[in-house]
Amino acid sequence: MENSNYNPEIIGNRDVAGSMSKTFIANVFSWMGVALAITAVVSYLFGTNADYMSILINESGRGLSGFGYLVMFAPLGFVFAMSLGWQRWSSSVILALFLAYSVVMGISLSFIFLIYTKSAIYATFGVAAGMFGTMALLGYTTQTDLTKLGSLLMMALIGIIIASIVNMFIGSSGMDYIISFLGVIIFTGLTAYDVQKLKRIGEGVEFGTEATSKLAMMGALNLYLDFINLFLFLLRLFGGRRN
User: Fold this and answer.
1) Which of 8, 32, 169, 181 is most buried, by the most CB atoms less than 10 A from its CB?
2) Spatial distance between the Cα atoms of 74 and 92, rounded to a whole number of angstroms
3) How far apart are CA 243 and CA 241, in angstroms?
4) Domain boundaries, the chain
5) Region of residue 57 (phi > 0: left; psi between -120 and 50: alpha; otherwise: beta)
6) pTM
7) Closest Cα to residue 160, out of 131, 135, 182, 129?
8) In the beta sheet, which residues pair with residue 241?
9) 64-83 pLDDT, tens digit each
10) CA atoms of 235 and 229, how far apart (whole Å)
């Protein structure tokens, strides 16, 4: 008896979409990996070199220099610029901005070496990598639609951003702990959501086009931010501070 559900054309289209999605996701993770590697190397170089660190701290040693303030806030400017201008700019410009952003972010993150021990930083990085990889795999393989979960997590993210701003004035250690705990949950979930979203985007793109290249780099930016934030929230929760 003929199987009415068998349609070679549909199956062929699914195979093509699946292949395109795998290629697209591979490109996304490749760019993310490059950016993370740059950030890690730059952060280590600045964080462990007193001469480099002196550029970021004023002469009294009690506050940031002008350049130090610049690198603290510049990453936010890069993210806004890329998010708002990626459709107008070429893939070469997006790539240049992304790589420059990863360098500046590395300089900005170098301050963690003044706050936490090296062993705590390395251990937390490993834990964050494991959690990120697990949730990325879950997001790629699950058949459950994570769209609603993503919307809830984005609203929760806005909530902890507001709470963090408020806590800057209150200075509550209890609130800081709660924010960090929720931050880990939010960015763990967002990792799965973003990977699933990128997988679906990859199923509909045309390989080798300018638009696809830009989408891959913007997807890499999203996952990069998921990982960095997950790492920082874990570090705030479990990192061993220097005495």
Assistant:
1) 32
2) 20
3) 6
4) 8-238
5) beta
6) 0.88
7) 182
8) 116
9) 888 888 888 888 899 988 98
10) 10
